[in-house]
Each structure stands twice: as structure tokens, then as C-alpha cells.
Design brief:
The protein is of the alpha/beta class. The protein has one domain: Dehydroquinase, class II (Rossmann fold). It is built from five helices and five strands; from the N terminus they run βααβαβαββα. It has a five-stranded parallel beta sheet, with helices on both faces. The structure holds 1,3,4-trihydroxy-5-OXO-cyclohexanecarboxylic acid. The site of 1,3,4-trihydroxy-5-OXO-cyclohexanecarboxylic acid has 10 residues, from loops.
Length: about 160
């Protein structure tokens, strides 16, 4: 099973950017931790960061037929991008939205997420640990879906035998 992690604008600047809000950890260190969890659970993982909305839409579309689950921090696009929301809705791959900061404690313009309603769920406010929680969540969702598909296949095989 494969997870694609998509990081939006300015997240490449973690570690130096507004440390009082986002903390001192760099994006590559967060990714290294996620990679470790993925390896422990036999999951393939790939990371993508872009500051451009269209590139994020392209990467989401490329996930079709490639990813079993997506973790996305759309960053500022969370609050503005209908295009990213539509791409998540279109591909129908379970997606977990993640934020380092608690967007509901911050400026009012951050309180609305255009993308969360088309995601399986949202995790916000736990700093880099938000990404760990997102990993645990997406693995749970992927396992449940896999178990459901296998049960359906077994049921179908049983029906085929009877007919
Ligand atoms: C963020 C929250 C957004 O409001 C902001 O624009 C970001 C980062 C977070 O992870 O807390 O760039 O997505």
C-alpha cells in the first residue's frame, strides 16, 4: 500500500518560518519520522511539496491508480482553493488533512477550510505530531478499506460457487 504526502506553500520553510507558531522542526525531519513509521508498517511513502496551486492539483490527479491514501497540508490554500478541493473530491482516494497549528485558534480567515469537507478527516494543532496522527489515521482507513474489499471478494467467490 502506498501513501502520498502533499505539502502546500511555505511548508518548505519550516524550521525558520514563524517558529513561535510552527516550531523549530524542518520539513525533511518531519518526513524522516513519517518514513520511519511507513517502513515499520510496510507502507510505501512518497513526499511532494509545492508552492503552486496547479502543481498540487496535478499531483493529486497523478495519485489516481498510484496511491491508496493521501495526507495533505494544503497550507494557505486550505482557506482559498476550490481547485484543490475539487481535485480531492474527484480522485476519491481517502485523504487526511493536516495542520501544524490549531487553525481555529488563529485569525478568522483561517477558521474555514475549503478542503476539509472532502477529506476523511482533519487533524490540526499538534505541531509536527499532527503528521504522526495523520499517518496513524490514514493507515487505519486503508486497512479498513482493504478488509472490506477482501470481505466483498470472499462473498462474491462464495456466490460464484453457489451459482
Ligand atoms: C498551516 C495553517 C495555514 O493557515 C497556514 O497558511 C500554513 C500552515 C498549518 O500547518 O498550521 O501555511 O496549514
Amino acid at each position: 500500500m502506498k501513501v502520498v504526502v502533499i505539502q502546500g506553500p511555505n511548508l518548505n520553510m519550516l524550521g525558520m518560518r514563524e517558529q513561535n507558531i510552527y516550531g523549530p522542526m524542518k520539513l525533511e525531519d518531519i518526513h524522516a519520522q513519517m518514513q520511519g513509521v511507513a517502513e515499520q508498517n510496510n507502507i510505501e511513502i512518497e513526499f511532494f511539496q509545492s508552492n503552486l496551486e496547479g502543481e498540487i492539483v496535478d499531483r493529486l490527479q497523478e495519485c489516481l491508480g498510484e496511491a491508496d491514501g493521501i495526507i495533505i497540508n494544503p497550507a494557505a490554500y486550505t482557506h482559498t482553493s476550490i481547485a484543490i478541493r475539487d481535485a480531492i473530491a474527484a480522485i476519491q482516494i481517502p485523504t487526511v488533512e493536516v495542520h501544524l497549528s490549531n487553525i481555529y485558534q488563529r485569525e478568522e480567515f483561517r477558521h474555514k477550510s475549503l478542503t476539509a469537507p472532502v477529506c476523511a478527516g482533519q487533524i490540526a494543532g499538534f505541531g509536527p505530531f499532527s503528521y504522526h496522527l495523520a499517518m496513524v489515521s490514514i493507515m487505519q482507513i486503508m486497512n479498513e478499506l482493504k478488509a472490506m474489499r477482501e470481505a466483498q471478494q470472499a462473498q462474491q467467490a462464495q456466490l460464484n460457487l453457489q451459482n
